[in-house]
Amino acid sequence: MSKTKIAVIGAGLAGLTVAKHVRDASVDVYEATDRIGGKLRTVAFEGGPTDIGAESFIPTEDMRAFIEDLGLTGSLVDPTDAPTLRWDGKELSLIDVPRTTTFRHGLQELTEKLAEESGADIYIDAFISGITRATDKESGKEGFRLKGGEDKLYDHVVLAVPAPTAALLLKQVDADAAQALAKVKLANRVVVGMRFATGEGLPEAAEVRIADGADGVRAAAFVFSSQRWPHLADRDGALVRATLNVEAHADEDDLVDWALDDLATVTGFDGRAAGLEEIYVQRWFGAFPEDTAATKAAAQEASELIAQIPGISATGAWVSGPSICDVIAHARATADDVPTS
Question: What would be one Pfam family of this protein (predicted)?
């Protein structure tokens, strides 16, 4: 008997986790962009790999077991004791936050290992524009075909893409689920990664979080990566990540200027005078679901409707929540529920 054919649409953290954990099946993963990883992205700075998406995760017992199973425990790095600060629009104060951990060479270690361990066929630059129900003419077997995918009849399709994309894919399969998914609104974010010649003048902290409602700045947070992570402290200069609540289509020069201006406003650090030696701007369109009652209700409705569609599953930040731990946990549960031969 041939193995169950599974299609996973989306090669971000959720999709790769599903591909790794589905058992006794033939798995194809389709990714519309030119790389795997989704909202996890590690880029090459002069001193070495640097995360420009999510940077770390809470090392829960389940996560440590998950990492150990992948053989990556030796790559984990714990943070320094530098504190986290909060800026309320006027002054900085200490706050308590959970300790997190990361990988020495960036979160790309996690996504690359998942891809390797999955044994799946992963298709990059593979834009899937729709899913249709189909029947094999010879055997009479029912399943799904993907517009833009391989010429195969799939027994099960896992949607590991943002809700608006899932809505488009499901239009011909289930109009009600597609309509509910379209109501899940996403927020955009921009991350500006900067390496300064010196970090002298930065607050002695791991990060600064900007309070909701703080006037006069566009930033949501600043992470002082060289002070947060001991392996990054060994590099030349000072790495700082600014997360901005702005329109992601804004001009790149404006984004960098806003990051520098807000950094000076919040911390007093003059990044221009310190010597800005390296920049990487990452625009995250649809970074995560909006934190509103309407979006949460829409996500719940969509999740319940998709659960009623035989042969279709959905996972990802829009249904699990945006944290790395939650995304992985939901994706593993999704994989466990996929029927295989």
Answer: Amino_oxidase
